[in-house]
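Cross-check.
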Amino acid sequence: MNAIASFITGRKTSWVTLLIGLVFVILAFGPLSAPKSDTAPTDGLPANNETVLVNKALEGLPGTDGTVAVVVYSSDSVLTDEQKLWITGSFDPMTQSFSGGAGDKFLDYTSAEFNGAAFVPPAEVSENGKAAVITVPLDEIDEVAERAERMADMRAVAKEGMPAGIEVHITGPEGFIVDISGVFAGANFTLLLATVIIVAVLLLVTYRSPVLWLVPLIVIGVADGMASQIAPQLSTLFLGVVADGSVTGILSVLVFGAGTNYALLLIARYREELLVTEDRHQAMNKALRGVTPAILASGGTVALALLTLLFAELGGNRTLGIVVAGGIVMAMFAALVVLPAAIVVFGRGLFWPFIPKFGGVNKSDNGLWARLGRGVSKRPVIVSIAGFAILAVLSFGASGIKVGLSSTEQFRVAPEAAIGQDILAEAFPAGATSPAIVIVNNGFEEEVAAVAEGVPGVAEVIIGDSNATITKIDVVMDAESQSEAAYTIIKELRSELGSIEGAGALVGGLDAQRLDVKETYASDQLRVIPLILILVFLVLVLLLRSLVAPILLLLTVVASFFSAIGAAWLVFVNILGLPALDLSVFLFSFLFLVALGIDYNIFLVTRAKEEAEKLGMKEGMIKALASTGGVITSAGILLAAVFAVLGVLPLLALYQIGIIVGIGVLLDTLLVRTVIVPSLAFITGKYFWWPSKKFADKN
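Predicted model, tokenized:
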């Protein structure tokens, strides 16, 4: 360790370190760069999931090898006869079909044929007369750009010659796929730009130097660029899955947030060492050796916590885990290798106008945080009770929390497909727009249909297409799509139809898919959250060589998580008017808050352990709080602001995660690390480090 630190910070070898870093940059943006991907988020259900098996079976049925666009014409009032005629066209007795209507606009796009000619099924007018639907079968297109261009053309054509008083939206599977891909177009650049601006401003405010802030910003910014090129390839290499836009968005936030936190810790320690060490290279050497254990433990905790997602069932969770863990490792490399070399080559003048001079006074020893530490040490029990009381009150806000958003509620600003789906849901009977799809072995279709009709909540059963082995059955439910009532019917269908021996009945469809995603998220939470807690505890035990301290630190972080959830839920309901949390929010918020929240405890307690060896337990904690108080507060505010930037992304899940983690990080920074952890340390005294006996209070 000493040899590596000496090489990184040496007079000549620091330049060599920067050269090595430059080589890695060239490789990352050159031969190792990732191919461009416009992949949209998917549910990531496992291959043996019932809905996935249904979708795979449907590929073998006639007319199901493509996709569908649903064109919705609607009006605020009942459609007039003229408007209906324009949409539906007139019935031709010769061809026994409708012609001359809006459906003819899509003959150049449809994949269906009738009597050897392109065919679009006739429009269907809703019972309330306010909407009409045209279903257009389409061929699948793999290229995202071509798919988007086709949809743009169809949406333009749909409006041509449209009578006044009606509007049109194209939704359905194809509409959603294109719109989800479209909302991420350019979003990551906006996210990166907003992140850079926030980090730059906060670094400038923190250092009050016109130059110093540029060095960590450039180093971490380049690390983020490298991570965006290399980390997503880990998912392709090990999981065979391409990372989507939501994963790469979170990757940028965490690399910038964590990397800047590590940079703040290193620079603060370097500034301290410059006051007592004349040679800046030796000062950086001491600083680097001092912060390396904390940064490695901190980054290692985050990376390992993310890798627990590899035990999840949902593919999206596994992808996020491995990709972002790779990004955190690159952030640690940048902070521990490239940044020390980049800073030390510039000399003390980099801190201008507040240059730390050799022999100068360390003002932190008698500053705000030192005074706060001494105050907490006098009444630790009262302070601890008050701190936990605040966390408890905030936690009560989570009572009545709801989880689960429909497909149309998952966007901050609803795209056209979501608007069209809402219109369909209002205009057509509940369940009519998204029937359950049942696949059965041939010969059992009548029996299965009869059993399905007897399930409470089933409105209609329609036997559909078949091939040599299986038959498709549509089951219309008398319940709103993606509601708890619909989920109950799906469960009952699976139970009743699954008991028919030899039928091989499988139940899928949109509601079944959403139910499976919901249940799989719940399963992933039960599997992953205990692993996160165990891993964090083990890292703390190895780092601190203690059993009491890790338990107390983990307790405070978990308490701050539930407080953050409670406070955020109050904001979501009373200010933002959000109906529920997205399915992914609880798991990801817990992961990020526990893994990142423990960082600040690690920064504080590792310094306290170092100082306790010289000053004793009480004075060591006060010294640690005085030395790290400013930098940890700056780091927490910066990380909270960076997570808030997730709000520029289109998915409501990321927006919610950003707010929850932002609130949680501020609680960890300003309450937990500031008063609760020191008060617990003062209460337990030397037993804080049990079973170690070398930290007895010397005072």
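The chain is about 60% helix and 10% strand. Residues 510-544 form the longest helix (35 residues). Passed to J.P. for a second look.
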